[in-house]
Design brief:
- By secondary structure, the chain is α/β, with parallel strands linked by helices.
- The chain has one domain: Rossmann fold (3-Layer(aba) Sandwich).
- It is 47% helix and 10% strand.
- It contains nine helices and five strands, in the order H-E-H-E-H-H-E-H-H-E-H-E-H-H.
- It has a five-stranded parallel beta sheet with strand order 2-1-3-4-5, with helices on both faces.
- Helix 2 links the parallel strand 1 and strand 2.
- The longest helix is centred in the N-terminal third of the chain and has 22 residues.
- The radius of gyration is 17 Å and the shape is globular.
- The chain starts with a helix and ends with a helix.
- The mean pLDDT is 92.
Length: 214
């Protein structure tokens, strides 16, 4: 198990560096930026025909520290809307406490708002996992379902209701785990799961478009 996590961390680190290099070449001009870890990285922009309006700066395996380290890439793009989902990997890939993860997320938000005063910044809740139906998945090793619940509660207290998007409750089943119909491996979402994200994102995009025509 320890060997599996060591290999996984090495793969994630190499992938992180590749993504950062690629993101350095992006040009300003799109309305929305998705920011975070795999939950954002795998959002199917092309499937929903949003690639003309949106950049996806999600990196699989990223952490709150990783996002802070590359935040200038987002600021440089100066979009009208930023949607952030980050934190779930902190508890398996870093030694950060829940409070330190929360502090990082708040700092990310602060820097974005400070540098892009005309940008709307939304934080989505962390998503649930399903260990019961996917016991052999390396991505689920050493994860505690309570971590997402605890950090979500902390975020909910610190971020105003208007800018905190709770998707957790829409994704869980009666046992409190990620619904089987929404996932492909117990942690990542499938197309049906991402439909929930899509509906929320489109509501925010519509809001921006309406204000642009006022």
């Amino acid at each position: 198990m320890k060997k599996d996590m060591t290999v996984l961390k090495a793969m994630i680190d190499a992938d992180y560096k590749r993504h950062v290099k690629k993101f350095n070449n992006l040009k300003p001009g799109k309305k929305c930026v998705l920011l975070g870890d795999s939950m954002m990285a795998y959002f199917p922009i092309k499937t929903y025909e949003l690639d003309e309006e949106m950049y996806n700066l999600g990196i699989p395996g990223d952490t709150t520290t990783g996002v802070l380290n590359r935040i200038n890439q987002v600021i440089r793009l100066n979009p009208k809307l930023i949607i952030l989902n980050i934190g779930l990997n902190d508890f398996v890939l870093t030694n950060l406490s829940h409070q330190e993860s929360l502090d990082n997320i708040l700092e990310i938000r602060h820097q974005l708002l400070e540098s892009c005063p005309h940008t709307l910044v939304f934080i989505t809740s962390l998503t649930p996992i399903n260990q019961k139906d996917f016991q052999d998945q390396v991505y689920l090793l050493n994860r505690d379902p309570q971590d997402a619940i605890k950090l979500n509660q902390m975020l909910n207290k610190r971020i105003d209701e208007k800018h905190f998007i709770n998707l957790y409750d829409d994704l869980i089943d009666d046992e409190g785990k990620l619904k089987l119909e929404y996932t492909r491996d117990g942690i990542h979402l499938n197309q049906k799961g991402y439909q929930i994200y899509y509906d929320t994102i489109m509501d925010l995009m519509d809001h921006i478009n309406e204000n642009a025509h006022m």
